[in-house]
Automatic annotation (TrEMBL):
InterPro entries: NAD(P)-bd_dom_sf. This is Uncharacterized protein. It comes from the Bacteria. The lineage of its organism: Bacteria, Bacillati, Actinomycetota, Actinomycetes, Catenulisporales. Pfam families: ADH_zinc_N_2 (PF13602).
Length: 119
């Protein structure tokens, strides 16, 4: 299984290492600025499965999607669902935050906050 949020050459490289007949490729972003190019003839010949974030999220009926959202909100309100935040950076430090992301040293969200105005 490969999960691709980068696209472009990185996504193409991930596709090449998937096992024929059982490889699964999840695409959900294009941080490189372009989606991973998918060649349907190659995918079919190799027996790969391609899934996208929207396909995963929206394959359920609307009522089931709503039930999932309501459950997630209940869990959040009860304190049993907490987001994983790696770091919160001041907007002026955005370059440092981007370096951490590029260096792949983060686990969880990296948030930028605007400067707080003085009273």
């Amino acid at each position: 299984m490969a999960l691709d949020a980068v696209g472009g050459e990185v996504g193409a490289g991930a596709l090449t290492v998937l096992r024929d007949g059982a490889g699964r490729f999840g695409t959900y972003g294009f941080a490189s600025g372009e989606w991973t190019t998918l060649d349907t003839a190659v995918i079919s010949r190799r027996g790969l499965t391609i899934v996208g974030a929207a396909g995963i999220a929206f394959h359920k009926p609307a009522a089931a999607q709503r039930a999932d959202a309501e459950r997630a909100l209940r869990e959040l309100a009860a304190g049993r669902l907490t987001p994983r935040i790696h770091a919160v950076w001041a907007l002026e430090s955005a370059a440092k935050a981007h370096t951490e992301l590029a260096d792949r040293t983060t686990v969880g969200a990296v948030l930028l906050r605007p400067a707080l105005s003085s009273p």
